[in-house]
Amino acid sequence: MEFAKGHGTRNDFVILPDPDGALPLTAGSVAALCDRRGGIGADGLLRVVRCAKHPDATRYAADAEWFMDYWNADGSIAEMCGNGIRVFLRYLVTNGLADGPTVTIATRSGLRTGTVGETIAVQMGPPTLLGTTGATIGEAGYPGVAVDAGNPHLVCPVPAAELAALDLTRAPRLDPAVFPAGANVEFVTVLDEPVAGADRHVRMRVYERGAGETESCGSGAVAVAAVTLREAGRDAGTVAVDVPGGRLTATVTPDSLTLAGPAVIVATGTLR
């Protein structure tokens, strides 16, 4: 089995080329591949498969050749991954599977189009703010805003000192009536330091369902940007999102949202 390893702002992925959908992936095999001690190690797995060869993507075959079959590190399947989609696009163009610089691929959240350059910018579709709810860590409660960014999120504003001190070694507890399938939980602080080209600057930590705390979450940055701009009374703008693994930029308009950031392929090999 051939594989590659890539990351976007240190949110890392095992990449499996499987054009004809022939690999017998299971939750257990994906979890083993993503295990950081006994496997390759990653926050998730990206299977590169043609739309026409995967039952979740055949309806997109007329509009896109490739489907991003994304699995979380625990072997569960997810709808979308903002860092993963940039790594997926980098892999396609680097390996001659797509011409670029503009490439459309299919995901479980629909078609997404990216522009591949030194960084990669992806049209993520407009996020939907669903209302207020909250998360609990230990005995502390954190109110936030539920967001659908192609996958479920909860964005919780916190003070800067509290952000650094949060214990994210365990999953924050959520209201199952709001998030029956769980959610990624973003804790965010608005920063005073300006960033050139950005209207807002924030710092974010994230607990991803199926993976634990990760160094970055692209769809989480999308959710955070939408909430941050709304709290500032704006329906459009650009937000610089600092994560432990680097910086992402999310640009919101009334009709769309573009996520931009780096994506790097760091290794290729053969899995035994």
Summary, kept brief:
Helix content is 15%, strand content 43%. It has four helices and 18 strands.
Model description:
A hairpin with a 2-residue loop joins strand 1 (2-8) and strand 2 (11-17). The chain has four helices and 18 strands. It is an alpha+beta fold. It has helices at 27-34, 82-94, 160-165, 218-231; strands spanning 2-8, 11-17, 44-50, 66-72, 102-107, 110-116, 120-123, 128-137, 140-148, 152-157, 173-174, 184-190, 200-208, 212-214, 237-243, 246-252, 257-261, 264-270. Strands 5, 6, 7, 8, 9, 10, 11, 12, 13, 14, 15, 16 and 17 form a 13-stranded mixed β-sheet that branches. It has a five-stranded mixed β-sheet with strand order 4-3-2-1-18, with helices on both faces. The radius of gyration is 18 Å and the shape is globular. It has two domains: 2-124 and 262-270, Diaminopimelate Epimerase, Chain A, domain 1 (Roll); 128-255, Diaminopimelate Epimerase, Chain A, domain 1. The active site is at 81 (proton donor), 81, 217 (proton acceptor). The record marks 153, 208 as: Could be important to modulate the pK values of the two catalytic cysteine residues. GO terms for molecular function: diaminopimelate epimerase activity. Catalyzes the stereoinversion of LL-2,6-diaminopimelate (L,L-DAP) to meso-diaminopimelate (meso-DAP), a precursor of L-lysine and an essential component of the bacterial peptidoglycan. It is found in: Cytoplasm.
